[in-house]
Each structure stands twice: as C-alpha cells, then as structure tokens.
Amino acid sequence: MGFFADGKDHTDFCAIFRRPLSPEGIAALQPRVAELARRLLDDMIAKSLIVDLHDDFALPLPVHVISWLLGIQGDDFITLKHWSDELMDNAFGKSNERFLEVYAGICAFFDQHLDARYAMLTAAGVEEARPEHVGTVLPDDWISDAVCADYLGRKLNRDEQRMALMGLLVGGNETTTSLITNLMWRLLEEPSRWEQVRSDPDQFIPVAIEESLRFDSPAQAMFRTTLCPVEVAGVEIGPKQKLMLNFAAANRDPAAFDDPDSFRLDRDARDLSRRHLAFGGGPHGCPGAPLSRMEVAVVMRLFVEHLPAATLAGPSERSVGYNMRGRSQTADQSRLLNVVAQERADVVAEQDGLLQCGKMPAARHLGPRLDVVDAFGIGARGHRIEFTGEQGGARRYRETPFKRPLPHDRAIGPE
Ligand code: HEM
Predict the structure, then answer these.
(1) How far is the C-alpha of 267 from the C-alpha of 257, rounded, in Å?
(2) What is the pTM of this model?
(3) Distance from Cα 185 to the centre of ligand 1, integer Å
(4) CA–CA dist 326, 343 (Å, integer)
(5) Whose Cα sits closest to atom 16 in ligand 1?
C-alpha cells in the first residue's frame, strides 16, 4: 500500500506528491527556506554566545518546511514534530503500545485536516474532489493532493491518505536535522575542514554535504523482503525473507570508497552523490533527497557567511535510535554549537545475536520489495535476517552477516 507498494501502484502513488519535490518545486521553495533559515539563525545567535545548533536550528527548520508542504498552519507543527519523533523513537521495538498510540494520534490529527478539506469542497458546492481543485478551491499542498488525486482510477482511501502524509512527515524530519548537525560537527571537529569550506563554498559545500551523507548516513538502513530466492555475497536467501540493507555500511565499503572511514573533502561531489546510498536506491529511493540537499545547501551558505568563527563548545551525545544517526533529542541543552558525539554506528540492535523484530510494527507495512538488491546487486551489503519462530509472543529473527567482511562489523567510531 502507498509508499510500500511496488510497480505501477507505487510509481503512481509517489507521483501524487512529487510536484514540490521536482526541480521547479525545489527552486520555488528555496527563497522561503532561506528566509526561514535566516530567521532561525538570528534567533539562535540572539540567545547566547554558546548556542545549541540542534535544538535551536537544525530541529525546527525541516519540520517547518514539511509543515508548509503538508499544509499545516500555525503552531500545529510543534505537535507534529513531537509525534514524529515519538513515532520514530518507538518504531523499532522500544514500545509497541506507545507506537500504536502515537500512530493513532497522528492519524486523528491528519483526519481532522483531511475532513476540513472535504468540508471546504462541500462549502464550495463541489461534489467530487478533482485534481484541478488543488490550488483553486483548496490550498496547494499535500493534504489537498491526498484528497483530490486520481489514483489507479479511484481516489485514495483514508488509510492511504494517512500513510502518505505520515511518510512525508516522518521521512523529511529527523533525517534532515541529522544531516545539518552531523555535517557541522564533522566540519568543526577538525577546524581546518571548516576553513576549507569557507575558503571556497561553491566547491566545498556540495562535497561536504555528500561526504556527510556518506560518512554519517542519517538513516542507517532499510528493509526489503525477498520476492524470490537470491544469492548475496555467497549467501543463499530464500523468498519472503526480511533483509535489513545496511546503507551506512555500504557507504563505508572499502571496495566502493577509498579510505572509507575518513571524512574527506577532496572527494568528488557528483561522484559521491551518484554512489553513496544515504538516500537508499531503486524505485523506493528517497523522493525527498533534492529537498534535503537544497535545505542543507542554503543552511551551509548562511553559516559560512554568518558563523565564520564557529567552534565546538564541548562534547555532545549521539542518539541511541535503532536506525537513525544524529543527536539525541534530550541532550543537555546547556552546551554548544555542536551536534553529535557518535560513539558507535552500530546499526543493528542485537540481543544475544538475535534481532528482535517482534515489536517492529513498521515492518508489517513493508510490502515485498527487492529493488536495492536488483539495482545494486547487493553492493548494498547487509545482514541476512531469517525468521526463527515465535517466542513469548514476539517474532524472532536470526541475523547472519554476509560472508564477506562488512565495514560495519568494525566499530565506526568513536572518531
Ligand atoms: C537527509 C535527509 C534524508 C535522508 C538521509 C533520507 C533517507 C531515506 C532513505 C534511506 C529512504 C529509504 C530508501 C530505500 O528504501 O531505498 C527514504 C525513503 C523515503 N523518504 Fe527520505 N530521507 C531524507 C529526507 C527526506 C525528505 C525531506 C522527505 C520528504 C519530503 C523524505 C521522504 C521519504 C519517503 C516518502 C520515503 C519512502 C519512499 C518509498 O518507499 O517509495 N525523505 N529516505
């Protein structure tokens, strides 16, 4: 269903929400993002000499942008951000109950907004929502798209509407926050890097962004289910097996990148952007990549201009999220222009060698997909994950590394 569908169902679904993520959409959005970034920067600097880049800047920026695109007005974005974080926090096993509560809360929130759009159509005498009502009778945003789009000869049902809006909300939030903070942390960690970026922003901002995506991938891995038997790096994998494709590990693959465990600004930005897997790949590759890249490029320009003397004010802490690489939401706010202290980039939550997938509601929604395997011949290395049976009400899976040594079998950090 929705983003988790495959083939034409998936392509047509993604197309409904693509307009603001197209080159024209991104270009139109850029001045607004620049204005927002400038305002957040001014507010942050006005607070104190020692500021918290994560809480005061990197966190609010993407959620504001996603709220505009969704069509959420006013302070509702704060609720959304809170929910989005809680959803991610609980999505991978921490609390299934809380995940379902938060999921229900977000559904109810989107339901209100969707219902309001139907009421607007009715008030305007429209009996059936049509695509041309977006930007005319209704505001031009994703909530209106979800109401008006034609999809496979019908309208989206409520589950599809909710899921699309939730996917866009969650997808574009913590990831972009992490990219901003991971990137600044790497540049300030070694001041000569920051010097270098400042010396030639046109050349080094794009490299720095792509290198950060490669080196500190904000979303570390994603799942696929095999449709048919496949062999990956000498390991036979049967059909209907869940795979966790470890994009972060692929991004540190010595066979793919020279000196993979070093953050380097002498790489080629275009080459990196074509080859790293921070945005996944294949038909399910991230549709929000151009938006994030634009946001972070705007931010870096601003920082180069207005924070030339930025330094780290002390250590920070890395989020303990199962799949996300960035800074903790609950970090001590008393310090720094800083960001992440990434102790380890272990991306697989192991328990006695077993991967506990029983409390992983998100996994239920993952339709069969194998496109990264197809697209990259599983150059995206990962672990094989096999269902080993039920235990105490939880589905348990065995996790076996593929035969070739994997970059993430070593600790990636502390640097
Ligand atoms: C630095 C920022 C971002 C990173 C690192 C990131 C990363 C990813 C990754 C790894 C995937 C999975 C790809 C795959 O399975 O092959 C993904 C999917 C997705 N992302 Fe992003 N993302 C970012 C920003 C965004 C933004 C800004 C949006 C929304 C505008 C977004 C929306 C989505 C959606 C809807 C999907 C599901 C696509 C599908 O399955 O068809 N992401 N993203």
Answers:
(1) 10
(2) 0.81
(3) 22
(4) 11
(5) 280
